[in-house]
């Protein structure tokens, strides 16, 4: 029981990290960035490449090295997100939504198969594997490394929340999300703020990618596809565009999946998650913490 | 949607793609030769004639198989064009309806020993139900939600087909009876069915319902204000698209005599979308040409397997940035001046 809860929370913290990027981008330009899951995949591969270049890492040094790689990767995927926005999305911001969605699909496709062409179709084994001391917490088996990863995720989320709610940048972001034109009139550089939002969201996805690589030990070019879908589900559950809601949605989806897998069997896990998504869209499309949004004309 | 591997690509594969006359040409006057060719009402018949005559040029089993696959792909693209092109709803799991059709006919014909034609009513019922189940909750919401829910739906269908016993699990179903004797007659049957499907889609697009679809695509709120029941109209587009996909699935099952989950990945959905976008959303001629290009190009570029999908992705972005109306855009008669 408590094992299920822990597993759910652990996976849920990954979902939450990826979902945040989805949610932020959606909040600010109302675009479902289909390529977001692929930035997570990119993060995993960047981390893989950096760790490979660094050579063998001793078990004792694994964690500090991993944290360093995490920061580096966040920078790289963040920049990738900025480039993506500049190249594929910016020029279409005034275009019909369908064009924007199609470019997003194209970007996702290009990233996936670009990585496949570059790194090969076979899964790669991550050079650092976190496996360590096991603790018993309320009857659940918890490894120290899992705790660390969750802690990192929580720190990133708290940091993001502070940034959005307390800083000047964050205020500008919220202003642009509310009304881009009025924000521009108030002297906010809307393009720059959107770029920064992409940077933040993509950096978080990259961090999740490295963490997933280190935890599961295997990465491949399609790993972002499913997590992108799950992260969207998490964002919808919590209320897309709403940051605390998205975090809650991620954890909740992790828990739901954990229990769903227990009852229905592992092979139905993904079906269960999408079933939840469709149910939520039917019953409460604004999510748990989302407000009712009217579509702009 | 690829034929059995091996062998050199047939020469006339390109000849079938020929009806794409210099589509990328821009800046020429409205009555340039290219545009006169493109607007010629005989263009569709010429395309059909090319399809009918192709086996006389090369009737090797490989060529026939590739051409049959291409024809089925055209039908898929015509169906998706109804949803994306006419109505402006982005369906990213379109291949799911293809899978539903293929599996329904496959399961019924192998388990119950029915001839494939007899499974058609069941295929229709099942695809319509599938369309309603996905469309009903999502079509009331923003269009982006439909996109991602259909993406999830595509995965659900594939995972379900992999997990169930009745669908043969990961290895799928074998020994599905064909519709006709021999590949040549099946090719002609496919071309016939696809031609009817394409013409049907075009006629639907020009009907009262088709006008409502385009109205919804251009401005949903204005359409609603003018008394168009947008929810019903969108649902109609979605369900009609589902039927087209399901029937194409029956052809697919008959063509390969086997179906397995590997044929219904997101990649396939994206390729159909690629065909529609490249050809020109809402333009039935453009979509047919786009489908022929997208389905035959991989046969010609077998060695560049990895890069061709990258190219498809980049091409999607470029088309949207540079020429969002596609290679062969639609020119509706009632277009505003």
UniProtKB/TrEMBL annotation, chain A:
Keywords: Amino-acid transport, Cell inner membrane, Cell membrane, Membrane, Transmembrane, Transmembrane helix, Transport. The keyword Protein biosynthesis does not apply. The keyword Membrane applies. The chain crosses the membrane at residues 6-27, 39-59, 65-84, 96-115, 144-164, 198-216, 222-240, 247-265, 271-290. It comes from the Bacteria. It is a multi-pass membrane protein. InterPro entries: ABC_transp_permease, BCAA_transport_permease. It is found in: Cell membrane. Belongs to the binding-protein-dependent transport system permease family. LivHM subfamily. This is Branched-chain amino acid ABC transporter permease.
């Amino acid at each position: 029981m408590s094992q299920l809860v822990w597993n759910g929370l652990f996976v849920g913290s990954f979902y939450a990290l990826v979902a945040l990027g989805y949610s932020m981008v959606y909040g600010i330009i109302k675009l479902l960035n289909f390529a977001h899951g692929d930035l997570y995949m990119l993060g995993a591969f960047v981390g893989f490449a950096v760790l490979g270049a660094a050579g063998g890492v001793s078990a004792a040094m694994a964690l500090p090295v991993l944290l360093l790689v995490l920061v580096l990767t966040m920078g790289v995927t963040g920049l990738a997100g900025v480039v993506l926005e500049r190249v594929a999305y910016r020029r279409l911001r005034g275009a019909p939504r369908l064009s924007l969605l199609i470019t997003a699909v194209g970007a996702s496709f290009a990233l996936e198969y670009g990585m496949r062409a570059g790194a090969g179709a076979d899964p790669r084994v991550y050079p650092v594997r976190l496996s360590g001391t096991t603790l018993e917490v309320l009857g659940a088996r918890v490894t120290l490394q899992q705790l660390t990863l969750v802690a990192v995720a929580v720190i990133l989320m708290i940091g993001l929340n502070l940034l959005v709610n307390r800083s000047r940048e964050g205020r500008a972001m919220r202003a642009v999300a509310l009304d881009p034109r009025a924000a521009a009139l108030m002297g906010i550089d809307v393009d720059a703020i959107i770029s920064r939002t992409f940077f933040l969201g993509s950096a978080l996805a990259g961090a999740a990618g490295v963490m997933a690589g280190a935890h599961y030990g295997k990465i491949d070019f399609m790993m972002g596809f499913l997590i992108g879908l799950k992260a969207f589900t998490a964002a919808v559950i919590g209320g897309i565009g709403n940051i605390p809601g998205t975090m809650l949605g991620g954890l909740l989806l992790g828990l739901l999946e954990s229990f769903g897998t227990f009852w229905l069997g592992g092979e139905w896990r993904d079906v269960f998650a999408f079933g939840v998504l469709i149910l939520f869209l039917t019953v409460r499309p604004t999510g748990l913490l989302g407000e009712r949004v009217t579509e702009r004309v | 949607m690829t034929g059995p591997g091996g062998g050199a690509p047939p020469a006339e594969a390109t000849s079938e793609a020929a009806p794409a006359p210099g589509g990328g040409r821009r800046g020429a006057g409205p009555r340039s030769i290219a545009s006169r060719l493109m607007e010629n009402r005989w263009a569709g018949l010429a395309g059909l004639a090319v399809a009918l005559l192709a086996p006389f040029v090369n009737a090797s089993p490989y060529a026939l198989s590739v051409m049959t696959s291409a024809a089925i792909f055209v039908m898929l693209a015509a169906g998706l064009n109804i949803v994306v092109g006419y109505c402006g709803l982005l369906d990213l799991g379109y291949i799911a309806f293809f899978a539903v059709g293929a599996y329904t006919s496959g399961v019924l014909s192998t388990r119950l020993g029915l001839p494939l034609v007899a499974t058609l009513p069941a295929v229709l019922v099942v695809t319509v139900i599938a369309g309603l189940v996905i469309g009903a909750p999502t079509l009331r919401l923003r269009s982006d939600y439909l996109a991602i829910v259909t993406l999830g739906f595509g995965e659900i269908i594939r995972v379900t087909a992999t997990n169930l016993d009745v669908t043969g699990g990961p290895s799928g179903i074998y020994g599905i009876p064909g519709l006709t004797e021999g590949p040549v007659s099946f090719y002609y049957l496919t071309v016939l069915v696809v031609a009817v499907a394409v013409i049907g889609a075009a006629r639907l697009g020009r009907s009262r319902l088709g006008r409502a679809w385009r109205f919804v695509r251009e401005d949903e709120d204005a359409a609603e204000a003018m008394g168009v029941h947008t929810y019903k109209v969108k649902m109609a587009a979605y369900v009609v698209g589902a039927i087209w996909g399901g029937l194409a699935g029956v052809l697919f099952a008959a063509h390969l005599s086997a179906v397995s989950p590997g044929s219904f990945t997101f990649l396939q959905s994206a390729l159909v979308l690629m065909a529609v976008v490249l050809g020109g959303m809402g333009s039935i001629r453009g979509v047919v040409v786009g489908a022929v290009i997208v389905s035959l190009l991989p046969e010609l570029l077998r060695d560049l397997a990895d890069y061709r999908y990258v190219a498809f992705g980049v091409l999607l972005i470029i088309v949207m940035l540079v020429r969002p109306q596609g290679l062969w855009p639609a020119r509706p008669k009632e277009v505003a001046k």
